[in-house]
Amino acid sequence: MVGFRNYTAGAAVSNWWSDNNNAIAFGRGDKGFVIINREDHEVSNTFQTSLPAGSYCDVTQGSLAADGKSCTGPTVTVGSGGAITATVPAMHALAVHGGAKVAAPGP
């Protein structure tokens, strides 16, 4: 999460979401997006972000591999419209940022 903080530093809060209880989600401009679930049950939703489409490492559970083409943990897909569909278990979080975007496979 230090990498998330460092990468998104200075970017304005955007795309705020709350379940009006103990789960929130927000972006840091087009730099990153985080979902924090402090509920006693999982939270599932489609969250709007300002991130470019692609595959990102969930930096709460892994990091971008040295080759930039894979992640040591789960990945999250941001669709062409910037949406993430995610299920976050109780008392967990999910965070993605541009510094942990998985490179598209190439030749």
Keywords summarizing the entry:
107 residues; mainly beta; Immunoglobulin-like; 4-stranded antiparallel sheet; two-stranded antiparallel ribbon; 1 helix; 8 strands; 7% helix
| Percent helix | under 10%
Number of strands: 8
Computed structural class = mainly beta
Main sheet, how many strands, which sense, barrel?
4 strands, antiparallel
At CATH level 3, the topology is: Immunoglobulin-like
The number of helices is: 1
Q: How would you spell out the order of helices and strands?
A: HEEEEEEEE
Assembly type of the shown chains?
single chain
Poorly predicted runs: none
Strand content: 35-45%
- What is the CATH superfamily? Golgi alpha-mannosidase II
Mean pLDDT level: 94
Terminal residue distance? 32 Å
Alpha carbon gyration radius: 13 Å
CATH architecture: Sandwich
What is the highest CATH level, the class?
Mainly Beta
The count of domains is 1
Side-by-side strand order of the widest sheet? 1-2-3-8
Give the overall silhouette: globular
Describe the fold and architecture.
- It is a single chain.
- With 107 residues, the protein is mostly beta strands.
- The protein has one domain (2-100): Golgi alpha-mannosidase II (Immunoglobulin-like), CATH 2.60.40.1180.
- The protein has one helix at 2-8, and strands spanning 13-18, 23-28, 32-37, 43-48, 54-57, 75-78, 83-88, 92-97.
- The strands form 3 sheets. A 4-stranded antiparallel β-sheet has the order 1-2-3-8, covered by helices on one side. A two-stranded antiparallel ribbon has the order 4-7. A two-stranded antiparallel ribbon has the order 5-6.
- The longest helix has 7 residues, at 2-8.
- The protein is globular.
- The protein starts with a helix and ends in a 10-residue tail after the last strand.
- The model has no long low-confidence stretch (mean pLDDT 94).
